[in-house]
Design a protein that fits this description.
7% strand; binds magnesium ion; five-stranded parallel sheet; alpha/beta; binds adenosine-5'-diphosphate; 50% helix; single chain
Length: 411
């Protein structure tokens, strides 16, 4: 804020540097309140409450900030008057660090720094498989198909198991493919280079082939490095993009990168790919030695849902939440759906606090109501998956899927 008095300005800077310092933030909130800027005070108090849910001073400040009459008395009195939700969100957005760090991918093609890596690589991934809740089948398969052979060169020699090619993760959206790929990088102590294939195709029309090569060159420079190709289906022959001239060249470039992955130049480069629609993936990419190992990533099971819910509730002011009950009633929801449930419950409690003027914690009734409202986002996916399982399971490619659908009586 440009028009902040000096004291408020320097406190803001201090708070930005130490976002978890509750007394400091409350000091700022107090000054804002005294300056008649109750909306901003509410926002700061809300963040303080996130860090220290039970803090009496924070609650008191919040109550006082919300009790202050709105600055524009001409407005008809509405329950939320005086609380600028949007401004509060913007402020909170500034103060709270982002909860997920996505690798930014250049999509504009305006490269200003010639010579620098165009593809941003995350340092060694800190997510490990232990951070992935539940999903024991997936972990077992990752171990057998990927991690164990990689870690045991001797065993590999004994069984003649080649390291060529990579691993394809598939399943409904929002169920943890990206998360798991990052965890695999963590297990390998490798950097993580996440690339959306759609971006590769869009970046510089006609240059997609070179982009694909550049991605692998970057990975070689950063080795050990996991190259994660998201939305692999964008390269698929069955998509409308076939019209995109040169698509074939991009596929061929990727094939030659994959075929070369076993060579000395590619030491420490690992390829993982993900798609929601494996049946649209170019068949050439799935031949032996390429992305021939597939892993189905399904909606989170009980332990996974518990881990996801715990994660999304960890910094929120909650009370008496019966997690096991919540886990039970959220069967079939994706990781993204579960995040949404927690978000919606928090919003419900916050709005309620604002309208009653009494701050209250997020309770079971907020979470149950939010869970009731959410529509499982994986359902439409299962509708198309069902057809594929019934009519296009060539060579048992989708046996895992068939087994799951049968178990859930969806087939
Ligand atoms: N088993 C799990 N344990 C913990 N978090 C999970 C798990 N599965 C999914 N998530 C979370 O769910 C969200 C969606 O997962 P994501 O990997 O983006 O899905 P996808 O790539 O399949 O669309 C992410 O926030 C992720 O952290
Ligand atoms: Mg993803």
């Amino acid at each position: 804020m440009l028009d902040d008095p000096p004291l408020i300005r320097s406190l803001r800077t201090a708070v930005a540097a130490a976002p978890a310092d509750v007394p400091l933030r409350l000091h700022l909130a107090q000054l804002l309140l005294e300056a008649g800027r109750s909306d901003e005070a509410v926002a700061e108090a809300a963040v303080a409450l996130q860090h220290a849910p039970g803090d009496a001073q924070a609650r008191d400040l919040m109550a006082r900030a919300m009790g202050t009459p709105p600055p524009s008395p001409a407005q008809p009195p509405r329950p939320q008057a005086g609380f600028d939700w949007k401004a509060a969100q913007e402020q909170v957005g500034d103060a709270v660090p982002p909860r997920f760090a996505e690798t930014p991918v250049r999509a504009d093609g305006q490269d200003d720094s010639a010579g620098a890596d165009v593809w941003d690589v995350e340092g060694p991934s800190t997510v490990r498989l232990a951070d992935v809740g539940g999903m024991q089948d997936v972990k077992d398969r990752l171990d057998a198909a990927f991690l164990t052979p990689l870690r045991n060169p001797e065993l590999r020699k004994l069984y003649g198991k080649s390291l060529r090619g990579g691993l394809l993760l598939y399943g409904p959206p929002g169920c943890g493919k990206t998360f798991i790929a990052r965890a695999v990088a963590g297990e390998l102590g490798a950097a993580f280079l996440s690339v959306s294939v759609n971006d590769v195709l869009d970046m510089w029309i006609g240059n997609s082939e070179r982009n694909m090569h550049e991605i692998f060159e970057t990975a070689r420079r950063q080795a050990p490095c996991v190259v994660f190709l998201d939305e692999l289906d964008a390269l698929g022959a069955k998509r409308s993009r076939t019209a995109h001239s040169g698509m074939r060249n991009v596929v061929n470039q990727l094939l030659s990168e994959l075929d070369g992955i076993d060579s000395a130049a590619n030491q420490g480069v690992f390829v993982l790919a993900a798609t929601n629609v494996p049946w649209d993936v170019d068949n050439a990419l799935r031949r032996p030695g390429r992305l021939d190992r597939t892993i189905l990533v399904l909606p989170p099971d009980g332990p996974a849902r518990e881990a996801i819910l715990r994660y999304h509730l960890r910094d929120r002011p909650i009370e008496n939440v019966d997690l096991s009950k919540l886990v039970k009633i959220t069967d079939g929801l994706s990781g993204a759906d579960l995040a949404h449930v927690c978000e919606a419950a928090a919003e419900r409690a916050l709005l309620d606090s604002v309208s009653t003027g009494t701050v209250r914690m997020i309770g079971m009734k907020d979470l149950l109501a939010a869970a009731n409202d959410v529509v499982p986002s994986a359902e439409p996916w299962f509708a198309s998956a069902r057809n594929v399982a019934m009519f296009a399971n060539e060579g048992g490619m989708y046996d895992d899927l068939v087994r799951y659908l049968k178990k859930r009586r969806k087939l």
